[in-house]
Amino acid sequence: MSLDASPFPDERLAGASSDRTTSGARILPSQGLADARGRALRDLRISVTDRCNFRCVYCMPKEIFGHDYQFMDRDELLSFDEIERIARTAVSLGVDKLRITGGEPLLRRGIEELIKRLAALRTPDGRKPDLAMTTNGSALRVKAEALRAAGLDRITVSVDSLDDAKFQAINDVRFPVSRVLDGIAAAADAGLGPIKINAVVKRGVNDDDIVPLAEHFRDLGYTLRFIEYMDVGSSNGWVLEDVVPSAEIVGRIDAVHPLEPIAASRPGETAKRWRYRDGSGEIGVISSVTGAFCGSCTRARVSAEGKLFTCLFATSGFDLRALLRDGVSDDQLRDALSGVWRVRDDRYSEIRAAETPQQRERVEMSYIGG
User: Fold this and answer.
1) Measured between alpha carbons, how far is 283 from 277 in angstroms, rounded to an integer?
2) pLDDT digits (tens, 9 = 90+) for 225-261
3) Do the domain assignments include residue 2?
């Protein structure tokens, strides 16, 4: 389905009751709103900016996102009022996990105020949704305490190498890994935990860092998640030969520090979990290329200017900002969001083998968030 147009006529937005989709189907928050494949909407990832101060080669390569690249104007971005309204609507439909992304979310001015607003939301049964953020960690040293005070629960930080020269080559702006590690320590001191670390693994770039990364973060008590290098967007030059399969990642660590599989912590979790047999912690692997998890995907994403995407590998999104700025009611917004999710049948990772990157244009990772 193309999401450039509404999945239902405009007149069907009017007068709908707050607990029904536009087709009249009952929404039960305890069960969640189901898509065409029976997958409930549970997670909403909200990008607050398309800007980033890094130029990571697998996400925002400098050749594409150079000094002359045109980022969004401030008035194109969703306001905090608009983000809060979308998040409240999603929570009313069964979402119990909100994640703030970017670009780099800590570049958004006043981000603590948005966190405070989202932390005040409640699910239909009165619970606070899990509120998390993914960041490159560059500003955590100065932001961590304020984020925790505002109500942020957890933080995930991207660290692709502990070797400073390699880390700087990957972020391509000469940002030292020591400053990110300092930021992670500040987040831990502020109580933003459990802390998770993400490492995107690319063959020939940082695959020799797999075991050193595992050992370093195990000793600190943080959960490290290895992510297969993905074909998100069209600017990172992705080829299958650059992917280090999760099975290989687990095998390399297991050969040095024996591992055993453990169950997922929640339905729809993307990472397969493994714990060290000596009881010293765990790792996760996200097999976004070699082990599709479309069948249990519970995530939707909202871009910085308000496009709703139902798949990380989508080609287009549904324009929620246009609805908001046209003055739709809360019920109409609820019906729009539920209407898009109800007809969702995305399963890109399952059909990837039948396509090539050249056959399909996709939105960039920096635009849609992780």
Assistant:
1) 12
2) 999 987 665 555 568 889 999 999 999 999 999 999 9
3) no
Confidence band (pLDDT; 50, 70, 90) for 20? Answer: very low
Tell me the pairing of strands 318-319 and 307-309: antiparallel
Using the Cα atoms of residue 60, residue 217, residue 257 and residue 132 in order, give the sign of their dihedral. Answer: negative
Strand partners, 97: 43, 130
CATH of the domain at 327: 3.20.20.70
Which structural domain, as residue segments, surrounds residue 324? 10-368
What separation in angstroms does the CA of 260 have from each of 53, 218, 226, 278, 283?
A: 38, 15, 16, 10, 10
Partners of residue 262 on adjacent β-strands: 273
Entry pTM:
0.87
pLDDT at 346: 78
pLDDT tens readout for residues 356-370 = 444 456 566 666 665
Q: Please, what is the end-to-end C-alpha distance for the chain in angstroms? A: 22
**CA angle (107, 108, 112) in 5-degree steps:** 110
DSSP result, 297-326: --EEEE-TTSEEESSTT-S--EEHHHHHHT
